[in-house]
Write a structure and sequence with these properties.
The structure holds two protein chains of two kinds. Helices cover about 55% and strands about 20% of the residues of chain A. By secondary structure, chain A is α+β, with helices and mostly antiparallel strands. Among the domains of chain A are: about 150 residues, Beta-Lactamase (2-Layer Sandwich); about 150 residues, 2-Layer Sandwich (Heat Shock Protein 90). In chain A, the strands form four sheets. In chain A, strands 1, 2, 5, 6, 7 and 8 form a six-stranded antiparallel β-sheet that branches. A five-stranded mixed β-sheet of chain A has the order 10-12-13-15-14, with helices on one face. Chain A has a two-stranded antiparallel ribbon with strand order 3-4. Chain A starts with a helix and ends with a strand. Helix content of chain B is about 45%, strand content about 20%. Chain B is globular and about 30 Å long. A five-stranded parallel β-sheet of chain B has the order 2-1-3-4-5, sandwiched between helices. In chain B, helix 2 runs parallel beside helix 3. Chain B has one domain: 3-Layer(aba) Sandwich (Rossmann fold). Chain B is built from five helices and five strands; from the N terminus they run E-H-E-H-E-H-E-H-E-H. The chains are: A alpha+beta, B alpha/beta.
Chain lengths: ~525, ~120
Amino acid sequence: MKLGIGARVNLSIFLCTTFTTILLSFFFYTNLVSNNNLQIKSTLEYVVQLVPYALNKEYMLKLTKDSYKSPEYYNEWIKISRISKVFNLNIYLLMRDNENNYIFIFDSLDSPLVKVELINNKKYISSENWVEPSKKISMVQNENEADNFFSKYKKPPLELDKAFTSDSLEIAEVYTDEYGTYKSGFKSLVINDTNKVIIGVDYEISNIKSKENFILKLTFFIIFFTLILNVIIAKYLNNVVTRPIINLSNHSQEIKKGNYNSIYNLSSYNLKNEIGDLYESYQTMVSTLLNNYQKIESTSLELENLSNIKDQFLANLSHELNTPLTIILSYSELINMDGYEISKIKEFSNEINNAGQKLNSYLEDLMMVTMIESKLDIEKTEVDLNSLINDLLASNSVIKNMNLNLVIDLNVSTIFVDRGLFKKALNSILSNSILYNKQNGSIIITSRKIDGTTVINIQDTGIGIPEDKIDLIFGKFYRVDSSYTYEVSGVGLGLFITKNIFELHGIGYSVNSKLGSGTDFKIII
Amino acid sequence: MKKILVADDQFSIAKALSELLTSAGYDVVLASDGDMAVEVALKEKPDLIIMDIMMPKRSGIDAVKAIRMSDELKSAYVIFISAKGQINEEKGALEAGGNSLIYKPFSPKKMLQEVSKGLNQEE
């Protein structure tokens, strides 16, 4: 399974925290145990040395198993009890009788509280009435019970026996009896022929256990808390980092596939952080990319068109140049052959001349295109439209051949243009009207003034132009018909030149045409 | 006298060929477009046809295809003339039943050679 960045961050945070927690807990635990062992030992040592100082030495020397009956007993018990409370230990005095019975004389926890009566400011302790010192021990009613109570200690640790014979502190291993689990220290207090008394100190191990439990609970709590925290962090990271990044990634994959139109609603996250900045710049990048892509696409389409048009032009040009060239070469060779009369030879040379003229006119057109593209200067003068049109029609032989019907109706005759250029422009339009016309067709040329502008219309009844190609006819080298069978020759520069001449003049123009029924060319000066 | 059909929409070229072939002793008929070429061919039954490929109304290739349908013209020698640079033209011309293809601009002498070669082959 592939983990996302959020999951990986979460997992590593979780693992780190858990590991650290467990390590710390282990450290604390071992520290606690070893510390406690040390602490217990030193506490035991300290308390064992402290107690004899606190106690009345004379009284201690006289201790018997019946000492609890004496009035001083209470004073000594109070001292031991206080020390016990301060150190949170059980302290007791033990003696051993001749039959090796252990007899508790004092016990900080369990020592009998004797009834104390204050008579004439002196304490009298009644040995007859025992009062419960703690909940653990029931009230001791008589001497026998008391003896019984003190001799309860049946299975003493070995160290206890040792303490009766040695002078040093004997520390027993942890042991459990009916009262609890303890670590104890024993040291002799009075050892003589009549009396053998030792001090016992019990450290309740359950204190350590509870600390251990606390550490264990804390460990689990920290792990659990980290887990919860992780879930929260995961949710947050997922919303703020992972999901936006996954979306970005998906979107960029789409873009990679070329699917530019797949617009994810990237702005919906509205993040005010670094990811938000990333989104913003990504969006800017995508829209720039999209723009550039569209630009490139349209440019390449344009280039492709241009290239097609160029190829067509070259094919046309080679064909159009070929014809006059063939004529020139053929007739010049015919002239060279023997047997032709002078009148024939004149005819041949005429053909050669015409072909040369045609080549020249193509050349002129090509020159004109170059000139137009380098913005030639125009010289506007008053030009008589009527004479201009007549000039153009007079030089055209095709009109007669096709038996075209000419209608010229000029309401406005004077226009302000560059005569040479305008004539050339008009010639292209007229030539098209004539060349693409039908046998016995007609051409109607009108001019009139509309709102201060002169509008010239040239209508023909020719083959027309397909609607989707009207814009193209003004392109360089464009010819609508490029099929094998074409009626009209030409290189396709005429209307391109016309358009440029009009644009240099600031003359408006438009073309209306219906395929098969003719074309209406409108010039607005 | 051998009869030759010259079909070319460029009158000057057709005329040049006509002059050339007439003075070489052939009988020449002219056509200025594809339709006319078919019409004239069927009527005149020429021994050899010189056909421009790019012509109005019907292309030279289509015209030759139509002419080849006639039993009498099945074996007529056909020389296509064309400007160079038209893709697949040569293949199309020969598939349509042309015997040879001469590119413009051509030399009249070469054309005469091709014509006599064609007429000899037919015999």
